[in-house]
């Protein structure tokens, strides 16, 4: 009897990791889009509604959730009266590097963004720039092959997050959205926390179905669906392993590997805001400089760390002529 119950409770836990914790809070497409819009100055209900083309009831629900989890705070509107607006808290503001890494990913891989390119301009150096993830110590761009992982002081098990969104939304990013978004159509697959968790498992070294399942504890049907989705989107390939005896495994494509900065910034955000008092569940080391990895997002022109107050959008076809750097 005791064995049955401990087995049952074990099945409701997952290996603690900050990416899963972050995704349990904000890992759905609308929360991601709303946070990104907040960095572009959106503060009012109607500005979100029209800006990102979100339905009123969904917007109300997500605003409540973002306030409850501490990313936004409700304040009286500047002009007084009974109107309210929403401001990013320090926790919400700290999501900015992740939003920039979404932008970068879309800029490199989204068809829609290639057709309608925009550019980010850094006021610090007046340059059209590509936000880039580097190690805070040696300033080298972070490559997944140059990072080692070990259990941190907060390692352990987390309760499995409740399956709030059990089915992947099939709503496409609304063409009626009026805002040129920081986070673009990569939300079609990133705006689902199971998909991101599966991706994160690959960066932690999983390749085989059983390994991914052990890392994520996602039910078999959800996992099969997400692996199929990531393969269809060109993030994963299915291949025969070189091991003996050979078996089928999945591997990240160049596009899939390019999601690494998103996962790393999410992990840092989770470590910063959602870790237990013991500390982060996982500690990363940057092999080139042998220091603990602290990933920061910088302007690739001047190397300064990026702050939303100093970054603006420019719609310009000229952005096409500038190759993204790594
Ligand atoms: Zn380094
Ligand atoms: Zn700059």
Bound molecules: zinc ion
Specify the overall morphology.
globular
Low-confidence stretches: 1-10, 165-175, 318-326
Q: Helical amount among residues, as a percent range?
A: 25-40%
* Number of separate structural domains: 1
Number of helices: 14
Strand pairing plus helix content: what structural class?
alpha+beta
| Largest sheet: number of strands, sense, barrel closure | 3 strands, antiparallel
Number of beta strands: 14
Radius of gyration: 20 Å
Return the string of H and E elements: HEHHHHEEHHHEEEEEHHHHEEHHEEEE
The averaged pLDDT comes out at 85
Distance between the termini: 55 Å
Widest β-sheet, arrangement of strands: 5-4-14
Strand content bin? 15-25%
Structural features:
disordered N terminus, 326 residues, disordered C terminus, 14 strands, three-stranded antiparallel beta sheet, alpha+beta, binds zinc ion
In short:
This protein is an alpha+beta fold and 326 residues long. The chain has 14 helices and 14 strands. The strands form 6 sheets. A 3-stranded antiparallel sheet has the order 5-4-14, with no helix packed on it. The protein has a 3-stranded antiparallel sheet with strand order 7-11-12, with no helix packed on it.
């Amino acid at each position: 009897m005791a064995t049955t119950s401990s087995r049952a409770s074990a099945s409701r836990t997952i290996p603690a990791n900050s990416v899963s914790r972050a995704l349990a809070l904000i890992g759905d497409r609308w929360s991601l889009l709303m946070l990104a819009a907040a960095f572009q100055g959106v503060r009012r209900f109607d500005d979100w509604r029209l800006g990102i083309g979100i339905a009123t009831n969904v917007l109300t629900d997500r605003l409540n959730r973002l306030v409850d989890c501490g990313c936004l705070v409700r304040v009286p509107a500047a002009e007084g009266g009974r109107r309210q607006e929403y401001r990013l808290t320090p926790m919400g503001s700290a999501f900015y590097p992740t939003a920039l890494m979404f932008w970068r990913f879309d800029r490199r891989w989204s068809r829609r963004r290639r057709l309608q390119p925009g550019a980010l301009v850094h006021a610090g150096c007046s340059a059209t720039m590509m936000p880039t993830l580097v190690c805070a110590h040696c300033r080298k761009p972070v490559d997944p092959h140059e990072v080692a992982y070990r259990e941190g002081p907060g390692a352990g098990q987390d309760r499995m997050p409740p399956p709030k969104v059990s089915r992947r939304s099939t709503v496409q990013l609304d063409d009626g959205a009026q805002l040129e978004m920081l986070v673009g159509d990569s939300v079609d697959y990133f705006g689902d926390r199971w998909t991101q968790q599966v991706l994160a498992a690959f960066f932690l070294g999983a390749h085989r179905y059983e390994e991914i399942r052990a890392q994520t504890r996602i039910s078999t049907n959800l996992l099969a669906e997400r692996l199929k989705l990531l393969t269809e989107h060109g993030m994963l390939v299915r291949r025969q392993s070189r091991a003996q005896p050979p078996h089928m495994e999945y591997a990240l494509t160049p596009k899939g590997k390019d999601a690494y900065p998103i996962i790393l910034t999410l992990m840092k955000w989770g470590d910063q805001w959602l870790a237990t008092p013991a500390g982060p569940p996982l500690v990363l080391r940057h092999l080139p400089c042998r220091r603990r990895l602290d990933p920061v997002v910088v302007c690739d022109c001047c190397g300064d760390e990026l702050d939303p107050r100093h970054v603006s959008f420019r719609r310009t076809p000229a952005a096409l002529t500038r190759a993204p750097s790594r």
